[in-house]
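One such shown below:
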Amino acid sequence: MPAFAALIPGRASLATLRRSLPRGGIRLMPCRTRAQLLQLLRERLMDGVILGAGEAGTAEIPEFRAQFPVFPLVAWGGIRPDDGEALAAWTRAGATVLVEGVDDAVAGELLKRATLAAERRRQLSDAPRLLRLTDPLQRHAWELVVETVDRPARTSELARALAVSREHLSRQFGAGGAPNLKRVIDLVRVVTAAQLLGNPALEAVDVARVLHFASLSHLNRTTRRITGHPASELPRLGPRGVLTSFARGNTRSRA
């Protein structure tokens, strides 16, 4: 389920946004202060950030974008016809603008499109071809792995979701020259780490915590296995660079 950190002034405006979202479709994590927002982004995997579209939220854009250029940004609130400068500022920041009272009915659908997960899927669109995932079981397992990066996916859980045995899934996933499933699970986690480390305000230790690595050393070891580089190189590599490095010769694991 996509999760958004929300710093929206006024309980009424936040409540309106909540009511406009499909139940069970998007999770909002309200923050009362900017400090709480920053802390949340350093502790939990968020798919984007929603700021109030008013004067206070608009004033936050430059500093927020400098610290978190990768996070999808959404503006929510009432926008008047004479708010042209504010609207232009949001547009320059690449934000999705949702007008309260106008976009309520489509807010949920628009938020789902403006997520870190959606961008990750776009960055990994070539992965099935590059990794030789041609069988329907391989493709379905891949889709599940891409959707479950908020915690480490387990082969047994994936097998249950696909209604096959753990042994069958492990054997079939790696058939035809495809990578081991365990390796692919690590690949998607490292791709997500590369996304997050594209934000200067996040350090590697923050990303290790957010993605539930046991430690910073664990993140570094996993990154080296997947890319041949340390985690410090992930901002340079980016998601596409991680996928390319992996496909060039890091696809097999011992387990």
